[in-house]
Fold:
Amino acid sequence: MNRTVSHHDYLMKHLTAPAEAAAYLNAVAEDGDIKSLLKSLRNVVEAQGGVGELAKKTKLSRTTLYKTLSSTGNPEVGTLDAILAVYGIRIGFFPVVHEGGGRHRPTALRTASGARH
Structure:
């Protein structure tokens, strides 16, 4: 009897909870790679019912959402905020703190083209 669960199935089960999805997106965002963040957001969308369901809730077209969430997507903050709001998640900003307690400049997010923001 096979008692293992695929990583994808495990992820889909856990990303239905807003707190789990937010923690997952935050962990990926720390790496500063926009392509990875968009892939992770696509996973959240899939776990929550897919792009069709998201399109109904955001009133954005499926085409717009597919382009926005593609590996070459460059979502506007408003679009990203609208997508996350559907799942009970919001964008936040937090100071980065060293182990010694001092602050340092965080790594900027990189877009699909490699440009840094």
Notes: The chain has six helices and no strands. The CA atoms of residues 72 and 112 lie 5 Å apart. The helical segments are 7-14, 18-29, 34-47, 50-58, 62-69, 77-86. The two ends are 49 Å apart (CA to CA).
